[in-house]
Design goal:
Chains A, B: It holds the Pfam family Rrf2. Two copies of one chain form a homodimer. Chain A is mainly alpha-helical. The first copy, chain A, has helices at 6-17, 26-33, 37-49, 74-80, 99-124, 128-143, and strands spanning 53-56, 62-65. Helix content of chain A is 55%, strand content 5%. The first copy, chain A, binds a DNA duplex (30 and 30 nucleotides) through residues 1-6, 23, 25-27, 35-39, 41-42, 45, 55-63, 84.
DNA sequence: CATCATGTAATTATAAAAGTTACATGAAAA
DNA sequence: TTTTCATGTAACTTTTATAATTACATGATG
């Protein structure tokens, strides 16, 4: 199965937008992400509808963050993408007439629901501000590798 | 993304084999599963290597369970399938040079690892015997719907 | 009003599972 | 021992999802 990497990509874009006052064009973001501007517009659409980002047309247009990084969780971003499937495995048939298959589906559904709920809850606790802090830490570590003096 | 339903399908097949002494052919199992015999052989291969089932060629050949249903967990079956991806979402790049993307990947990886571990642990607690019991319960309920007298 | 940037529909490329075909291997029956 | 049956696999096709691309409409700015 092909894994959906839109969440990862969208987070990447959002962090690159952080701190910038001027709008960033889809063209620029696409270069950072090594993809196509249309892909950027597509994955940003949900965030715009939810008011997390704003977009402007024409000269000086582009994308800007519309709220604080601390106010967006990874779950928000996931929802903005239309809440795509989190689990890669599923049932063969949605409403099987076979009782054996019904039992299998019921058992799997319970576990999968639990795992999804747990993952969603976890995503809800991580804000973009936390990711940004993590990024800053990495930047400091790279600039001043372990063992070196401040 | 297309969801992997091999686990569900394999469990279905195994439960249909339960209790049968004589070998069941891939042909028969494929009819039950409404699929192709080759698909059956493919998903059963891992279980055979691990000794959970045996297969025989020629006349009177086919598949038989090689152990008690209580001794196979859903996790065993998942492993027999080659431990396919459980999560449908992943990273864009495996080893990104961009520090921002590294931070994103690290944050996601933590949560995903946790969710996967939790799901695997859960699968490890469910045996085929439990699924079989669930099936039997459903059978009894269908034969004697709620409200009817024993 | 020309240019720039988004908005979106339509099309093509890509990747993984599922399904199919073809044939080799080996066991049991005739 | 030869025929038949069933597995074991490799190779190929189909299916279905995301991702990438193309094309063009919309609207803002200089």
């Amino acid at each position: 199965m092909k894994r959906d990497s839109r969440l990862s990509g969208l987070l990447h874009v959002l962090l690159h937008m952080a701190g910038r006052e001027e709008p960033v064009t889809s063209e620029t973001l696409a270069r950072i992400m090594q993809t196509n501007p249309v892909v950027i517009r597509r994955i940003m659409a949900g965030l715009r509808e939810r008011g997390h980002v704003r977009s402007g047309k024409g000269h000086g247009g582009g994308w800007v963050l519309a709220c604080d990084l601390a106010d967006i969780t990874l779950r928000d971003v996931h929802e903005a993408l239309g809440e795509p499937q989190l689990l890669a495995i599923g049932h063969r048939t949605e409403a099987p007439s076979c009782l054996v298959e019904q039992a299998v589906n019921a058992a799997l559904a319970d576990s999968f629901r639990e795992a999804e709920a747990m993952l969603l809850a976890r995503l809800g606790t991580i804000t973009l501000a936390m990711l940004h802090a993590d990024f800053s830490t990495r930047l400091a570590l790279r600039a001043r590798p372990e063992g070196s003096c401040p």
